[in-house]
Amino acid sequence: MLKSHVKFHSTAGKRLVLIVDDEQVNRELLGFIVSSDFDVLYAASGEEAMQVLKENAQHISLVLLDLMMPGMDGFDVMRIMRNDSKYEEIPILVLTNEEKAEVESLRLGASDFIIKPFRNPEVIIARMQKAIELFEDRRIIESTEREPLTGLFIKNYFYRYAEQYDQYHSDTEMDAVALDISHFHLINEMYGRDAGDGVLRHLGAFLKDVIERTNGLACRLEADKFLAYLPCGTENYEEMFLKINEHFNSYSDINVRVRGGIYKSVDKELDIERRFDRAMQAVNQIKSDFTKSFSYYDITKHEREVYAERLISEFDTAIESRQFKVYYQPKYNVQGDEPVLTSAEALVRWNHPELGMVSPGLFIPLFEKNGLIQKLDYHIWARVAEDVRGWKERFGRSVPVSVNVSRVDLYHHDLVTYLQKILAENSLSTKEMYLEITESAYTENSDQIVYVIDLLRNKGFEIEMDDFGTGYSSLNMLADIPVDILKLDMKFVQNLRTNQKQETLVRLIMDIAKYLKMRVVAEGVEEKSQVRFLKEVGCNIIQGYYFSKPLPEEEFAQLLQRCLTVSQK
Amino acid sequence: MITIDALKELGADTEEGLTRCMNNEAFYLRLVGIALQDANFAKLRADIEAGNLDAAFESAHALKGMLGNVSLTNVETPVVKITEALRAKDQDADYAEWLTQMETELEKLRAL
Predict the structure, then answer these.
(1) Rounded to whole angstroms, how far apart are CA atoms A228 and A219?
(2) Which residue of A has its CA nearest to B69?
(3) What proportion of chain B, given as a percentage, has pLDDT over 70?
(4) Regions in chain A scoring below 50 on pLDDT
(5) Residue B22 and residue A97: Cβ atoms within 8 Å?
């Protein structure tokens, strides 16, 4: 994929190289040797080289540099080039007859050497091409792993490099840091997109400084959220956040406030993303506290319990004042030429008035543990039923929604009657609300669960097995349990090393589903290539960021309306 | 007139020099012409006579690389000796002898 040497002979023309040598004979000879493959610029001194670079930096693919020159020598030129972002990526080949100089030049960032007196011309050209290829390949890789606005890593690469870092520095204690710009959308709205981008770039540049100093990693997670992974003790966070905010105050009259959350000395047993969830939680804790610019993830058990206690004690209020928001992630049918929005999955979010968005990853396990989850589920189902009815009335179209059914719900005596009641209240049928049950619930394989699910199916409900593949279901178990739809999470598939293995697994699942007369819905789909492949193997219902993230009800209704207008045309 | 045969006669490794120039005779002879006019020859003598051995090393070193590229072995040989003695900061080396040798060979070439 990255074979840039193909381009050497393409219509793109010859690469431009700069030859720097104070000896005219050497300049002319080298120029003569390479002129069949390259366009050449010359400089007879270090000073002249810097001048030529200044004028042509973006066009020069390689510098051939003599080390010993009167005045500014080759080492000086390398030092300047490697410390200036305009030139730092241009590869340098050193011209030398001094073996001792080689180590020092490598240290300064030379890619390779050409020994004087010059030997085989073909070898010289091959070395030049290799240096250029490596540099161009690296640039292609970097342009995909970095986010263009700030030049920081994108999320996936950041997590991957962080894991790699841990692998090679298992003894280094690390801090996970999350940064968030308060009311960033207001900056965009009040001062325009360019000003907003300027703020993001500034914060990006600040973080670049930090990681350079601390030897850490950083990324822009999304919109106005940034993450950094820093060795413990390399950064004074109080000073850091003071400096960031001072920096923004001096940079313009836009009122920018950056908040940080730090999970100190992370538990490396914890999944890398969970570590940053904790840092993010620390940010959210001070969301409405204007006296603080950063806070630490509260590691003490006591404090954690207090936080959990608070969530639990405010649960009833949250239900009553509708702090739980239902988000809808659309599912598309891709069978035809154009994808058609057919249904959605309901997801719960908690928008706490003081704590901000509390992560579902935090409150759901908590509520599962103490049984409150059942009350939350019932509440969400009722809200979903209202929404489905609302859309039906407004748009004259039924859009079935999948809701989550927790394991404890299956043990609740009035489950079936409650579901029937809310459907009846909203004049809906059992075909308008799908029930998602997580795979791990099945693995208990208790008679009670099979009994309840059978009962639900007899009443006409469609049962979806959520997170298929992440639990422990074996194939023979799949044949015995009552389920209509398998939900296959592509993120799980992605964990397989090679594309070929991923494809084989998905094909296998499709075959089994077909044999057992189950349908398959793919979720977590993010890429066009995945859509194409899934379509090819007959998996036609697709959910994921490729089409849309989960949307609040209002936005989902707007989307429905747009889809309807289009399909009427 | 400078010719390949004449250079060979005086001890230049013309075969190697020509290969380096991809057997382009005219180009090779042009480079030899430029090499013979190099200002570092005069500078090397001046620096050594003034006892400025660091500056002399730079000139000698530059000449060595350049002469190697045109394969003027007869001039290169004394220059290599000077370069290595200067690198070793040898105060007592017979620089005068080598300089004379260098200039003698140089004059023979320039007389072509």
Answers:
(1) 6
(2) A117
(3) 100
(4) 1-12
(5) no
pLDDT, tens only, A478-524: 777 788 999 988 776 665 556 777 778 788 888 888 888 899 999 98
- Best of B13, B16, B19, B21 to disrupt the A interface by mutation (most A CBs within 10 Å)? B21
Q: Which residues contact B7 (CB under 8 A, 6 or more apart)?
A: B14, B17, B32, B72, B109, B112
- Whether chain A has a CB inside 8 Å of the CB on B22: the answer is yes
Average of pLDDT values for B58-84?
94
Contact across the interface for A26 and B66, Cβ inside 8 Å = yes
Q: Which of 2.60.40, 1.20.120, 1.10.1060, 3.60.60 is the CATH number of B4-110? A: 1.20.120
The confidence score (pLDDT) of residue A96 equals 85
Instruction: Kindly list the residues from chain A whose CB atom is less than 8 angstroms away from the CB atom of residue B22.
Output: 32-33, 121
Confidence (pLDDT) at A4: 34
* Predicted local confidence at residue A115, as pLDDT: 85
Exposure on the CB side of residue A240, measured as CA atoms within 13 A: 25
CA angle A21, A26, A30 (to 5 degrees): 100
pLDDT of residue A420: 96
Contact A68 B62 (CB under 8 A): yes
Alpha carbon A295 to chain centroid distance? Answer: 24
Pairwise CA distance, residues A408 & A19, whole Å: 74
Which one of B66, B70, B87 makes the best mutation probe of the A interface by having the most chain A beta carbons within 10 Å? B66
CATH classification of A325-568, choosing from 3.20.20.450, 3.20.20.70, 3.10.290.10, 3.50.30.10? Answer: 3.20.20.450
Domain spans of chain B, in order of start: 4-110
Q: Quick check: A26 contacting B, CB < 8 Å?
A: yes
Q: Does B21 touch chain A (CB under 8 A)?
A: yes
Asked if B22 and A70 come within 8 Å (Cβ–Cβ), the reply is no
Option in A23, A24, A32 nearest B21 (CB)? A32
Q: Is the ipTM of this complex over 0.90?
A: yes
**Inter-chain touch A116–B69, beta carbons under 8 Å:** yes
Separation between Cα atoms, residue A383 and residue A419, nearest integer Å: 12
Residue type, A390: G
Q: Which of A98, A102, A97, A100 is nearest to A116 (CA)?
A: A97
User: What was the pLDDT predicted at A475?
Assistant: 60
Identify whether the C-beta of residue A329 lies closer than 8 Å to the C-beta of residue A553: no
Q: Quick check: B77 contacting A, CB < 8 Å?
A: no
- Residue B100 C-alpha, separation from nearest chain A C-alpha, in angstroms: 23
